[in-house]
C-alpha cells in the first residue's frame, strides 16, 4: 500500500519526556506527518504521557488503547503494557506478553513502520537506556526511509542514541528541537 503522507516513529525511554517536549514544541499543526510516540513504560504504571505532551504541541495528541487509523498531523502515544505495529496505515495495539521481559517496543514498531511506509517512514530516537531501536532503524533505512537521533551529548540517557550513532549512522544527529527543524526540511 502506498501512503500519501510520512509517518514518524519516535522512540524514547529514560529521560525522554523533556526530549519529546523539545522535539514536538516547534512542529506546526500542518506538516502532513503522522507522529507515533513509543516509549518504555512499566506494566503497572498508568502513563499520563499524552496529558503531558498535549501542553507542548499544537497537534492533537491521541492515547493509543485500541486499533486506530493513522492520520497526518496527529501525535499518537502508546499506552502502558502495550505494543504497537502498523499495517496498511492502521495502528494495531496488543498487550505486552508476560514473556516479553525486555521491552523492545521501538524495534517492533519501527520494523512494521518500515514495511508499511517504506520511503515515507521516519525513525527518531531520543534519550533512553539500552539498544532498543537499532534493529528497527536498520529496517527503516533498508526500506528507503531515514533515521534521526538525538545527539548523545544532549540526551539525559545516552544508551539508545549512542547505539544508533555507533551502529547505524543516522542521517541527522542533533538536539531534539533541531531534529524537528531538520525533519520538516527533509519532508518539505
Number of strand elements: 10
Q: Which superfamily, in CATH terms, is the homologous superfamily?
A: Methylesterase CheB, C-terminal domain
Order of helices and strands: EHEHEEEEEHEHEHEH
**Tally of separate helices:** 6
Characterize the biggest β-sheet.
Answer: 7 strands, parallel
Which topology does CATH recognise? Rossmann fold
Q: List the strand order in the largest sheet.
A: 3-5-2-1-8-9-10
Structural class: alpha/beta
Number of domains: 1
CATH architecture term:
3-Layer(aba) Sandwich
Bin the helical content. 25-40%
Top CATH class: Alpha Beta
C-alpha Rg (nearest Å): 14 Å
Give the overall silhouette.
globular
Strand content: 25-35%
* Parts with pLDDT < 50 across at least 5 consecutive residues: none
Terminal CA distance reads 22 Å
Mean pLDDT: 93
Would you kindly provide a brief summary of this structure?
The chain is α/β, with parallel strands linked by helices.
Notes on the protein architecture:
This protein is 31% helix and 26% strand. It has six helices and ten strands; from the N terminus they run E-H-E-H-E-E-E-E-E-H-E-H-E-H-E-H. The protein has helices at residues 16-24, 49-53, 105-117, 134-142, 159-168, 176-187; strands at residues 6-12, 33-39, 61-64, 68-69, 75-78, 82-87, 90-95, 121-125, 146-150, 172-174. The longest helix is centred in the middle third of the chain and has 13 residues, at 105-117. The protein is globular, with a radius of gyration of 14 Å.
